[in-house]
Design goal:
mainly alpha
Amino acid sequence: MNPLAAIGRGTHSMLATIGRIAIYAGTAVSHVVRPPFYPKEFVQQLFLIGWLSLPVVGLTALFTGGALALQIYAGGARFNAETVVPSIVAIGIVRELGPVLGGLMVAGRVAASIAAEIGTMKVTEQIDALTTLSTHPMKYLTVPRILAAVVTLPILVAIGDIIGIMGGYLVGTLRLDFNAGAYMTNTLNFLETGDVVSGLVKAAVFGFIVATMGCYHGMSSGRGAQGVGRATTQAVVSASILILASNYLLTEVFFSA
């Protein structure tokens, strides 16, 4: 019975963790609309999460768009369908690759940073000091980061979509001999408003996931440097898995028909 007991303990631990994360996320959402507010912290997080993540997201989108154009051209050439490159690059970037890769890159940079920062504050008892000074840690630390991530990630993804499409455009015109005007015409003709909106909604959800995972694991960090390191790793891993899982669910919601 020992193997079954181990499976039971693992399942129980996983469900307990999911419950704690759900309660933490619900509590954070409930604090969003209740005073006091900390606009200075919110603006600072806009800069740290949004502006500093722009180079990473932009470079990722640029090279992804170029590689996608090459792959679609190579695959389409087998069926004499090379002309679909502009439209499929645009749809693939806007619907899937832009939000998912942007979310994963931000998760790697931001979730780790948030978890390390808050975990270090917990280890050095700064969070206890906030409570002593009648400052709610959820209001001061978690809410500004979640709001900033939800606001900035759609903007980052929108910029990344443009850069990714331009990466495909550069490869298509300079490497694959597409006509520049025809490439842009095909791109614009096949993109629909629903494609763009679905990608931005996904980005907002991914931003919520990234910030929540970073804050939760930071608050749950163990003592010492080892505890902070473990919390940082768990924040990135859990945020990445939840981004991929929620991406599938949102794709079902938007495009199941």
